[in-house]
Amino acid sequence: MTDQAHVRLTSLEKHFGAFQALKDIQLSVEKGEFCALLGPSGCGKSTLLRLIAGLEEATSGRIEIAGRDVTMLEPSDRQIAMVFQSYALYPHMSVAENIAFSLEAAGVPKAKRLAKAAEAAALLQLDQLLDRKPAALSGGQRQRVAIGRALVRDPQVFLFDEPLSNLDALLRVQMRIELSNLHRQIGATMIYVTHDQVEAMTMADKIVVMSAGQVQQVGTPMELYDNPANRFVAGFIGNPAMSFLNVAALPPALRPAGAQEVGIRPEHVQLTAPDAPLHGSVRLVERLGNQTLIHVETPAGPVCAQAPGHATARLGETVGLALEPGRAFLFDATGHRV
Amino acid sequence: MKIKRNGWVGLAWLSPTLLFVSVFVLWPMVHLVWLSFTSTSLLGGGEWVGFKNYTTAFNDPKFWAAFRFTLLYTVILTPILMGLGFALALLVSPNTPLRRVTRTVTFLPVVIGLASSSLLWFWLFDQQVGLFNRLLVDLNILSQPLVWFRKVDTAMIAVIISVTWKVVGFGMILIMAGIQSIPSDLFEAARIDGASLWLRVRRIILPLALRSILMATVLSVIGSMLAFDQFYLMTGGGPRGKTFTSVYWIYQNSFVRFDLGYGAALSVILMLVIMAMTALQLTLQSRGKA
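YS: structure for the whole thing
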């Protein structure tokens, strides 16, 4: 951790009755950084975000924002703004009223707050929609209103709780670009919860991979991809996912010492002649246009190989597999890197 | 694809409801309207008299006095029930164990019959043995026990207290359902926005729970306009017939004076007034939404 930390979480824990949702979370996010909390459903990433927002109370530990201990403060006193998965727009208020509501709560005069709302709306290309109700907006426009509501608070930290998951695939890509641009434009600190590794990889400066209430690894997208700390991170980061081979079932010549499993990414597996030491039968061929994913069942486990778009492979055919030297990841019985 | 319509199957599915409504709602209403144009007596006999019962009703000062009293009772009771119901709904809408218990306890009187609760409160207000009088004397609010039903205003207060206790839980539950249907992330967004409780109530809860509040208000107004049991059992229409409600006056004419035809005409007038009031409330609501 450095002294520049804009958000610092120290020994943060959260229990719901007997269930421990978060275990000893240590994390620091630098000023202006885009930090993604990434993990599967139920891993505690949204709970962590809600603790930072103050919507849940921490069982123990400390939360600092801009050098201030905010652990016991109300959400409105933490200088944060949050964009919810459902957008959480007030359905009976216009776009302008939605954006300006926090200013109304702060007692800002009407003219001033509407001017600020119009300013935020202009930044998000919402200026033609200020009088509309949320029901008359598209999903993307609603999302922008939610972001506008956050912008107008001028917060120290923006919190995003899976903000794109209600959008269709095309709009998601577009909003991803817009959010990245917005981050560059305003240079704010952002903490972004997602279960979608593509979102995390493409937008974040730093990714925090979580599983079972614990931080598994923190790093830049490429650090996590190139150097995963454990089997969970290795399997979670990367699309298509890494294949894991049981060392005991590998041909003796391919068995690394001291490892229980070998992990290999699809782009580091080549198809070779069927008489290669590692071989198996083709189980599935997925054609994606620019590439073809070939799933092969081997005695050591299923392996996915990434081949060129027009690669030929037939279901049931026996193929040989070659693993690119130096590209395999070795894991011990506990799932840690060897 | 063309949808195949089969009217007979639809009618068969609807028939139990249609039968029920025809026998227990439509026919009694038609019969009531017919009765209102006759001089039918409870003891038998009677003939077609046209609009005579209606002209008599419009010139009957006692009916209009009862109507005004009912209106006054409704105008006083409805804001109390809605205000208290809303406040209670705000308190008990979060699902915590203590609030669930409070909710149940507040709702319990709703399941007691109105006649039973009126009798209960009649004795609580009694000058000799009434615990309510005793409590007010012990708290030094009254210097001596009050005879609640000797004056119109104290009798009205007594009835309003008893009815509030009896039915406030009903409004509370309806409004609470409205509050609970507001997505929780709106409240969370409001917390982050720094909205005070008053601002949350005024700008979020009230507008979003308006449908439930209106429904509770309509039901409350209808209930109050049809008030009978509580006055029959607690005041007996007294003192000097000044706490007769519209329905009580209809009862007096139909079952004490045996004039069923006249009672039916009064019922039709009251029904039309209540329908008009309900329509007005619903229209105001839909205009408010637009």
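YS: worth flagging: Chain B touches chain A through 17 residues (CB under 8 Å).
IM: good catch. Also The CA atoms of residues 274 and 280 of chain B lie 10 Å apart.
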